[in-house]
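In the current project phase, the collection of sequences with tokenised folds has grown. A representative record is quoted in full directly below:
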Amino acid sequence: MDLRLTDKVAIVTGAGKGVGAAIALALAAAGAKVTVNDINPDRAERTAQMIIREGGTAVAIPADISNKFQCVHLVETTRAEWGRLDILVNNAAVKPKSTILKLDEWDWQRTLDVNLKGTFFMSQLVGRVMADENGERGSLIVNITSTAGTQTAFEGHAAYAASQAAIAGFTRECAREYAGYGIAVHAVAAEEPMVETAVAQQILALCQQTWPG
């Protein structure tokens, strides 16, 4: 895939490990400047340093995306660093395992706060920036999702499944509302045993679709 993102700036949430780290590394390898977000500062910094060692450009910004003030800090610090925002990947998620009969209310609420509310906060805040500043150059928001919310039974993960079903609906509405601002919004399902690099390649394909020239 011949993709050049040298003039693009991306935020990847939950990028301290796993799929999020793979996405951040892939975007950086294609030339994007990447804000690596994770609630764990050490994990965020580790991924950012991996990017830098491989010749890419990155900064680590720890934040809990379930907190709107921390989301504002994440977005505004990225803009202060590089002056623009082109790509948002909402990857951060929690998956507490419990039967419904034993599911603790705190785990239920925390799952909705991170997975759903965090996706809303980031999509709204970044969407406002993109709508105001990007215009005809185009923008991209990708929500990493799971078929647990719509198709596949995911035993012991009712809270996670509920959040993913809600994100599917939110993604559709976000895509509809944002289209008029030149912002493409997509969902990409990341399912085990799907390898992390395969998810990252789907993100790059969406980038090429958004900026084909």
In short: The mean pLDDT is 92. Strands lie at 9-12, 33-36, 57-60, 87-90, 139-145, 183-189. The two ends are 13 Å apart (CA to CA). The chain has one domain: 9-206.
